[in-house]
Amino acid sequence: MNEKVESLKGKLIVSCQALPHEPLHSSFIMGRMALAAKEGGAFGIRANTKEDIAEIQAQVDLPVIGIVKRDYEDSKVYITPTMKEVNELMEVKPEIIALDATADLRPGGRTLDEFYREIRKSYPDQLLMADCSTVEEALHADQLGFDFIGTTLVGYTDHSRNLKIESNDFEIIRQIVAKVKHRVIAEGNINTPEKAKRVIELGAFSVVVGSSITRPQLITKSFAEALD
Predict the structure, then answer these.
(1) d(CA 40, CA 107)
(2) Does the chain have fewer CB atoms within 10 Å around its N or its C terminus?
(3) CA-CA distance, 202 to 149, in Å (whole number)?
(4) What is the DSSP string of 57-108?
(5) Please, are residues 77 and 49 in contact by the beta-carbon 8 Å criterion?
(6) pTM of the model
(7) What confidence tens digit (pLDDT) does each residue in 138-178 have?
(8) Which residues contact 184 (CB under 8 A, 6 or more apart)?
(9) 198 phi and psi, to 5 degrees?
(10) What is the structure's pLDDT at 1?
(11) Cβ pair 155, 165 in contact under 8 A
C-alpha cells in the first residue's frame, strides 16, 4: 500500500460531496472545500464523480476515495453500481474506489461477488473499499478481498434501517474491527470530534466525516431547529 494511503492511519478523511439538487453542487466549490479540509487537518478526501475528483486533485495532494453516485431503475444500489462508474473513476485514478457492498443486487440483477470479480479482473491493482450496512456484509466483503471495509451504509438500507452506527458505543464498528482481516474505515453519522476520536480508539484505521463539515445547509438546520 502506498505512502499516501498509509498516511490515513488514525486520521480524518473529509467527504466533499454536493449532489445536483444541493446549493454547493460545483466541482470548483468541491475543490475549494477539499482545500479548506486540508487546511483544517484532513489527511484524505472522499469525493463523488470524476469531474469533482479531477478538480480536488488539482487543489490538494491528498489521497482520494472516489465514488460515483448514480441511480438505476432496476436497483437500489447507487454508490458506484456498475463497471461504467468504475471505468469513469479510473480516468482520474483515485487512490481508493468505494462501492456499495450490501446484499442488494446491482443493476441487471448482478451480485456483489460477480461485480467484485469483474473489477479485479479489469483493475487488479486498484484499492477497493466496501460500503457496508451490516456486520454480515462487512464479513462477506472482507472474505471477498476488499482492501478496506466501510460502515458507510449502516442504517441506509432496508435491512439495516433499525441499526445506528453510534449505538451502544459503536458496537457495530467494534464487532467489525474484531472480525475482519482488512482495515476498517468508520463512516456514517460520525458528527462530532468526540465520536471521530472514539472510533479510532476502537480500532478503525481511519474515519470519514461529511455532512457535519461540508454540508452547510444541514449544519445550519441543526442550529435553526435548536432555536425553534
Answers:
(1) 38
(2) C
(3) 15
(4) HHH----EEEE-B--BTTBS--BS-SHHHHHHHHTT--SEEEEE-SSSPBGG
(5) no
(6) 0.97
(7) 999 999 999 999 999 999 999 999 999 999 999 999 999 99
(8) 138, 148, 149, 150, 151, 173, 176, 177, 203, 204, 205
(9) -65, -40
(10) 78
(11) yes
Which residues lie below 8 Å from residue 162, measured CB to CB, with a gap of 6+? none
Could you give the CA distance from residue 14 to residue 60 in angstroms, rounded to a whole number?
12
CA end-to-end span of the chain:
49
Residue in this structure with the C-alpha cell 466483503, named with its chain if needed: 141
pLDDT band at 219 (very low <50, low <70, confident <90, very high): very high
To which residue does cell 471521530 refer?
A: 196
**In the prediction, which pLDDT does 171 show?**
97
Q: What is the 3-state secondary structure (H, E, C) of 204-219?
A: CCEEEECHHHHCHHHH
- What phi-psi label fits residue 119: left (phi over 0), alpha (psi between -120 and 50 degrees) or beta? alpha
- Asked whether the predicted pLDDT for residue 17 surpasses 90, the reply is yes
**Residue 109, SS3?**
helix
The amino acid that residue 120 corresponds to is R
What's the pLDDT score for residue 103?
Answer: 97
If residue 121 lies in a helix (H) or strand (E), which one and from where to where? helix 112-122
Closest residue by Cα to residue 33 from 19, 22, 47: 47
Q: CA–CA separation, 132 vs 160, rounded Å?
A: 10
